[in-house]
Amino acid sequence: MGEEAAAATVTAAAAAAASGGAPHLLLICFPGQGHVNPMLRLAKRIAAKGLVVTFSSTSAIGAKLVESSGVSVGGDGVPLGGGRIRFEFLEDGFDGSDLDELMRHLGTAGPAAFAELLARQEAAGRPVACVVGNPFIPWAVDVAAAAGILSAVLWVQSCAVFSLYYHRVHGLVEFPPEDDLDARLTLPGLPAMSVADVPSFLLPSNPYMSLTEAIQQQIRTIDKATWVFVNSFTELERDVVDALRGVATSPPPPPLIPVGPLIELEGDAAVRGDMIRAADDCVGWLDEHPPRSVVYASLGSVVVLSAGEVAEMAHGLASTGRPFLWVVRPDSRALLPEGFLDAVAGRGMVVPWSPQEQVLVHPAVACFLTHCGWNSTLETVAAGVPVVAFPQWGDQCTDAMFLVDELGMGVRLRAPLRRGAVRDAVDAAVAGPDAGAMRSSAAAWSAAARAAVAAGGSSDRHVEAFVEEVKARAAKA
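The line above is the sequence of Glycosyltransferase; the predicted structure tokens follow.
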């Protein structure tokens, strides 16, 4: 970041302070549920410590948040702790659903729409002191720099995955051939990994090359950001964070600042980022069941199963003989086997979306059948719930390896999906010979995660230090 940009940022922050307002941060988020959740939760933690924070994404995301979560767009926002959080979205006009089209649209229309959003803040008397972006929109830091605004990045995956991307982008590691599952690669601070454990976005067979390029571009230009936050916590990934400091590249890797797990904290759930309205009766249904009796299954907001896989999952859950709460998104509900809902009535609850963090901390939940997206991974770590790990692609592959092999919190469910394998995996996680050890490990990691985000914990201190630095820049101007 150049001196002129830094000076302009301080001037903007000073203008906000002089007008009687706190420094103003703007978080710009890639339009996906797995990005909205951690970005919004970071926004709330920063706001609670005394800043004004605007959360933004595409106009389509704004419409979904208004409909599903009731957020109010524009104005002064909502008081939160010592600050405020508000919502204002890009005027980008995209309403499609194809991923490649979305990535092309963001790359072409996004920078101009974002520059215009920043200009609107200036004109409204709330100049932006700092922009926080995330990996799938690497142009955010460039737009901020052009406007003379400091920037930060929130890496929404693990430190381990960041290290894998960083080493690959800078030519510091070669992965084994995809068909050599016995080969192992090693990186400083990480356990030995097979090619099946690395993010699939880095493999030749990856079909999502537009996402891969966006992430790699973020890695290549990440030194433009003043701060690099990561949705993790020091105690969970200390070795990889420490090892990155010793990597010899020019420029060197940025220091990663763990600020997670970015989970809902008590008192801030009134402002939520659900893009699908969560079913209202999940918790009440769980209340009717004894402790550690219910299997919770959710494959997140993006994973799509075939009709055959949905049938195998359905029959597998039913065959466990245990009550189950299963999230089947509206786009997949028609794939349920005929008569299934009637057959499991009273024992199985199928919902389009759930208040997942409330579900995971409920004492009735025995295990979590999960795709191992990083948000779900951290949520189950924080809740202390063992897992049945069923990763599909991307960083899910790495997350599953860590949950099962490193944290000792669960078992794997491998493809191809079969109903008997679902039943056996659930049985192993809930009542198998290693189930007690899994619960103990999960409980220990839950305590560590919650200590990190509690007042004075490692992640809380990192957020506090960032807020104080932003305030100090404004005060010195």
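Note on the example: The longest helix spans residues 99-123. Residues 1-20 have pLDDT under 50 and may be disordered.
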